[in-house]
Amino acid sequence: MKLIAYIISYIIYPLSFLFPRSRRKYVFGSYRGSFADNAKYLFIYSSKNGDKDIRYIWLSTSRATVRKVRGLGLTAYWVFGPRGLWHALTSKYWFFNSYTSDIMFCLSGGACCINLWHGVGLKRIEFNTVSGPLADRFSKKNKYDAFCHPESFRRPDWLLTSTPFQTSMFAKAFRLPESRCLELGYPRNWILNADENARIGYVDRYEPAGTRQFIDRIKGKYDKVYVYMPTWRDSQRTVFTQSMDLERLNGILAANNSLLILKPHANVILTDSLGSLSNIVLADPKSDIYPILPYASVLITDYSSILYDWLLMEGKDVILYLYDYADYVKERDFYYPFDENVAGCRAHTFDELCSLIESGQYTQNPDERKLIVEKFWGKTASYDSSRKILDFIKNQRK
Predict the structure, then answer these.
(1) How far apart are CA 14 and CA 105, in angstroms?
(2) pLDDT over 90 for what percent of the chain?
(3) Which of 150, 175, 192, 305 can pair with 119 through a Cys bridge, CB separation 3.0 to 4.6 Å?
(4) What pLDDT is recorded for position 163?
(5) Cα dist. 127→4, 131, 149, 169 in Å?
(6) For residue range 194-228, what is the model confidence (pLDDT) as tens digits?
(7) Burial of residue 34, with CB atoms counted within 10 A of its CB: 0-12 exposed, 13-18 middle, 19 or more buried
(8) Are 104 and 79 within 8 A, CB to CB?
(9) CB 140: neighbour CB atoms within 10 A?
(10) Which residues of 300-336 are buried (b: 16+ CB within 10 A; e: fewer)?
């Protein structure tokens, strides 16, 4: 059945070039049919603040996502339905977080594809990848992988980046000239430094009720709120039970009136349960953590690009928990030297992590933070990425 589906897609793709496409219709989508990430924030901003003569439409392979978006009073269609197919085939501008498969690859012929991507950072991605499972698809040119993932080889027309430092890496990763990279920052980062009233207004309007309840639960209740957000491992390991004694950590947190939020990557397979831990909570892997991050005090992470978004918030601290560095670099190497391009206090073992949390000796060096922010965000740390993207596309339409 999969083979038949691929063959049908390959037949449809050239036909999709034949459809006339409207420059006054923008469609948006996200990985695995979700309503998430930069595309989500740009779509919401566009629907609220964009030109009124433009149609802004969310397309998804998930009926549940379509119902969710419509419940917010926004326009959404199931991409396999007649109207979803029509809008995908007749929209000139496609906005997505990863690949055209976020909407549907075989319908993208003739569309202007704007890849918003989902994280600046150090790790080699796409055609920069030289080791690990993804190397088979990109650098080793495995024919089976190429056949099954044509979306990976469809170059975007424009790629969202942040600074020349990042553009040089991303351009090579996506086989694009640097002139095709838009250094405009990320739409999702707006909420990190939004005015409190604007942020809460956004949460109440566009996020599930549980998000506001969670914020109210942690806001002002603890001396410290930690959030642990490790990177995605290709092996989909259950990172929490491998690297942490949660019972021991819970005792330390309780003694210091602190809370730890565990936020796994959406791709992580969770096989463990937290039980009845009083000061550790597990966030839904598929939930949007960005509205909650401003209410946390300390980020615990490793090689994840969340570090660079987090550093946009002043007065926040970072612990880099690097318990598997030697193993990780065998799976996924870095495009730039790691130590020169991160900020935060290091912990290489669980004992070291516990000692840092107990002592509180992890205060962020403001000069180190400033250097990294300038390198990775530069002028794009101004939090108006969505407006700039819409302005750019508007100029393209002329």
Answers:
(1) 11
(2) 72
(3) 305
(4) 95
(5) 28, 11, 14, 10
(6) 999 999 999 999 999 999 999 999 998 999 999 99
(7) buried
(8) yes
(9) 11
(10) bbbbbbbbbbbbbeeebbbbbbbbbeeebeeebbebb
Per residue in 143-155, pLDDT (tens digit) is 777 788 888 889 9
Single-letter amino acid, residue 328: Y
Q: Residue 296: what are its φ and ψ, rounded to 5°?
A: -95, 155
Asked whether 60 and 29 are in contact (CB, 8 A), the reply is yes
User: In the chain, what are the domains?
Assistant: 2-185+385-397 (3.40.50.11820), 211-376 (3.40.50.12580)
Q: Tokens standing for 335?
A: 């495009």
**Cα-to-chain-centroid distance, residue 163:** 17
Instruction: Provide φ and ψ at 277, rounded to 5°.
Output: -70, 130
Question: Which residues lie below 8 Å from residue 258, measured CB to CB, with a gap of 6+?
Answer: 222, 223, 224, 225, 226, 252, 279, 357
Express each pLDDT in 96-140 by its tens digit: 999 999 999 999 999 999 999 999 988 888 888 887 777 778 877
* Strands 280-282 vs 298-301: parallel, antiparallel or unpaired: unpaired
Burial class (CB in 10 A: 0-12, 13-18, 19+), 103: buried
Q: Answer for the pair 320, 347: CB distance below 8 angstroms, yes or no.
A: yes
Asked if the model's pLDDT at residue 236 lies above 80, the reply is no
